[in-house]
Amino acid sequence: MPRTQTHDTSRRGFASMDEEKQREIARKGGESVPAEERSFSKDRELAATAGRKGGKSVPAEERSFSKDKELASEAGRKGGSTKHS
Q: Which candidate, 8, 28, 36, 82, has a CA 20 to 30 Å from the CA of 42?
């Protein structure tokens, strides 16, 4: 039986699913661990280290804060505030 695809991509895997199915699966992942059990919630140093690593992966001239000083200032003002404080 011939395939009815109109393009040459695979019909398998997450990327081939319709968007609603992808959202459903992604939503389950976000709900699977309560916020207080997530590793970054328990270990601020781990979160800080991950943030520093992420920042190093992008050249300085390509970083958002390097391009937009107002954005950097706003983020700095928000700093340690959280929604649940």
A: 28
Contacts of residue 9, defined as CB under 8 A and 6 or more positions apart, other chains included, come to 16
Which single residue is written with the structure tokens 């997450």? 14
The model's pLDDT over 23-33, given as tens digits with 9 standing for 90+, comes to 888 888 767 77
**Which among 63, 80, 81 has a CA at the least distance from the CA of 72?**
63
Going from N- to C-terminal start, the domains of the chain cover 34-77
- For residue 42 the two structure tokens come to 């328990």
Phi first, then psi, for residue 38 (nearest 5°) are -75, 145
